[in-house]
Structures are given as structure tokens and as C-alpha cells.
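Aim 2, interim progress: modelling of the iron/sulfur cluster-bound target.
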Amino acid sequence: MKAAARRLPAPIRAVASRLPRMPASIAFATGLNLTLRRKFPAEVMDRLEGHTFAIVVEDAGFELLFRVRGRRFVPVAKAEEPVLRFRAVAWDYAALAAREADPDTLFFNRRLVVEGDTEIALLVKNTLDTIDIPRTRSILRRAMRAVGPGAG
Amino acid sequence: MDQGVASPALRTTRMKLVCPAGTPPALKAAVDNGADDVYLGFKDETNARNFAGLNFDDRSLREGIDYAHRKGAQVLVALNTYPQPASWRKWQAAVDRAAELGVDAIIVADAGLLAYAAKTHPGLRLHLSVQGSATSHEAIAFYHEHFGIKRAVLPRVLSVEQAEKVVARTPVEIEVFGFGSLSIMVEGRCALSSYATGESPNTHGGCSPAKAVRWQPTPGGLESRLGGVLIDRFGEEDHPGYPTLCRGRFVVNGDTYYPFEEPTSLNTLELLPRLQAMGVAAIKIEGRQRSPVYVETVTRVWREALDDCAREPQRFRVKPAWQEALAGISEGRQCTLGAYHRPWK
Ligand code: SF4
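Predicted structure of the complex, ligand included:
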């Protein structure tokens, strides 16, 4: 029931918010291509084709932007209105990716805010739920344990 | 005037745990954490959780059945919407697919589809869906005599006493809801969403189709709309729920409130010994639209609770840790006993 989110420590926040945005988006899109691209069914990638997505890491004070083009994730420097914008703190994103937190619960608790096209949001959520990336997950889980208790 | 458990010797039959799966990882989570049955649907309107990206195709279902059977669990396919004349073949084909893939049972609401399944696949086990809306032993007897159903899922509108009477008077296994979001109207007969979306869950497989849903941040709070109809507006401290009309807060005669019912989740852990003593055969967990994390958490808690209850029903106590885990993944802030315990019937 607790709704308090775990936020990044202030010093990390200060550094993160000053990081240049584009390299972060490039790294993120590359990561997506490595972990998710081949796991996303072609028809889902086609449905996402041409759309821009924004991931706001609230406690780090920055926004990652990418678009789907030619069934790949490509970084974007500036967004025209993205089809979806997610807002959450870094810890909650990590917990979602590690399958330590439930997206609907974060949404009910206002810790995950989703703005934009509901149909695409649901498609993305359900597709992510369908995917098994056990190795990435266990690395994330371990990293979260190392940082401290209180996940999800 | 019913006072507690009627039978002095508590039955020791173990109730089955029936868990939801919208995706293969959710199926694995259910099986790995002790579900006896896992229920799921195909990727179309033949089931009542017809959402983009959710549900199973033939390949993932075949793999899911393999996985479940290897670990001793059963797979039930929900075909729980009502076929329309123009699309009848699609439902028929879905029954055939389920039978060919070797599922352990199908969960069906429509009498025509039950008749088709009973005739075409006499060896296929049939469960009557909650959407069939059978609330009396007479209704269940009808489905039993005509189609040979082996199990019926009771709608979430009966009190414990009423459910007890049904169980006592039917030879059919009875499954009841134990946990999850509440669908508060009489299941299978709710057409509320048609008003806002032109679609009802009974025919299209959902009462908040994503294409009709809008979440809008406004200066007054986060607004949820269904087909343009304002369902609710949430302040910073409010907890939004699913945007269905039955969960809406509306202005009625100048007062703003939830005219249908406050959005809550059902949680019947405390009733387990009584349900077991009554002879309930299975407990159903709602939530095929939820994530693998949800399925994992609920299945783990309910497995432990059901095992405790089967072992020593007299000493059964709901553990605070269970309630805490369940509260952490519930829709809305409160959990209730729903209609099982209601002053009015
Ligand atoms: S609108 Fe509410 S009561 Fe009606 S089917 Fe949907 S969830 Fe159930």
C-alpha cells in the first residue's frame, strides 16, 4: 500500500540532471535494440512504427527519447509530441524491468504516470509482460539488492 | 439466520487454486508458485480480456500446456463471451482449437457454444463461466443435464449463505472468486459499457476497451474518460482504478459519489475455512490483465493459505504478511468481502 517512491540520492541526482541528453538517449536506444528488439513481435514493432516515446526519469531530471523506425529503436534529440510519455523515478523503472514491481500497482499508486495513447500504452505493457529476459532481470535484481532493500 | 460453519466435522478436501495468465511468463509464475489450474484466453474476442498484446496464440498455448503438465498443473481456456450470429464460426473454431491443443477444460458461458462443445468434443471437460450468470442450483442443474458441465463458477453476487445452499444442492464442482478486482454487476448481463463505447464485455471481450480510454492530466486532477464520458477525477492523494463505468463517480441529484459501488478489491482469505467446509471445489483469482509479478505474488500467498487451511482448518489464521502482500497489488485502497458478506441480499 505504501506509495512512497525510492528516489536517487541528491548527489547522483545533481550529476544526472546535468548529463547531456542525447548520449543517454543513444545508449538507451542501443540497449533496447540489444535486449528487446528481437523479442518484440514484428506486428507490434509495425504498430509502433514512426511513433516517438519519452521516458522521463523524474528524480534524475532527464528525459530519454526514442522512435521506432524500420523495426529498430532510434534515439531522438527533440520530441515533437511523443505518442507516449512515461514518468517515474529511476528505482521504479529498474523494479519494473527486474519484474520486482507490478505496473498496474505503480499506476494505481501514481508512481508511474502514463500520458498519451492508451491503446499503444496497453500494447507496450502487455508485450513487455510477454517477454522473458531472465539474464538481464537477474543482473538488475542483484544490482538492486546491492543498492539496498525496499524494492517495489 | 445462519451461524457460522454448519457441519461439525470440517471437510479436509483440498480446494484447488485457479490462477490467471495473460502471458506466458504469467503462466510460468502461476505454475511455479503452486497454482493447480491456470486459466487463459486466445488473442481475440472469444474471451472477456480481449486486450492488445495480451493472451495466447497456438504456439504459446502449446508451450504453456507442456510446461503446466510437466509440473502437474492444468490449463483451462476461457471462451467466455457470447458469439454473435455473424461470428459464430470464430467461437466454434476456438473450441476446436482448444480441444486439439489438448487443454484440460474450457470455460464457457453461452449455451449454444456449450451444446456445440459437448456434441463435437464429448471428451472435453466443460466449466460454466461466471459470465453464464448461474446463481442457483436449478440453473446449474440445467447446464449439467444438457451439457454435462463438471464445474460452475459462481457469480460474485451471492452471500456466503447463498453460496453454501448452492454447493449443498448440486453435484457439480463449485468454483468461487477469492481475490481480485470486482466486477460488481451480475456477470454476463452487464451492458453498462455499451452506453459509453458501443461495446459490451459479453460480446467484445472488454468493458474498458483501450481505444475508448483517455487518461488526461488537468489542473483539477487526473481525469479518466471512457468513450468521452468522465469516469472520475483523481487528486494527488487519490488512487485511480480501472476506467469502467461501474467504478465511476457521478453527480446524482446534486451529490457527487459512486452510485454503483466504491471501487474496491475482493479478498476472501478470512472465509477460507468456511468455504472449504461448505465443499467449495476451487478458488479463483481474478486478473488475466495483470503482470507476472501480480500473478506470482497472489499465487504464492493463496497457495500457502490454502495449504494451511487444508492442514488445520480449525487453527487457520490469516497472516498479516499475506494481507500486506495482497494489499500491495490490489486495485483501490480497500479490500472487501464483496457480496459474500453484505447486510442486504
Ligand atoms: S462495467 Fe463494471 S460491472 Fe460491468 S462488466 Fe465491466 S467491470 Fe463488470
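Chain B touches chain A at residues 22-26, 51-54, 210-211, 213-215, 217, 222, 234, 236, 239-241, 289-294, 297, 324, 327-333 (CB under 8 Å). The two ends of chain B are 13 Å apart (CA to CA).
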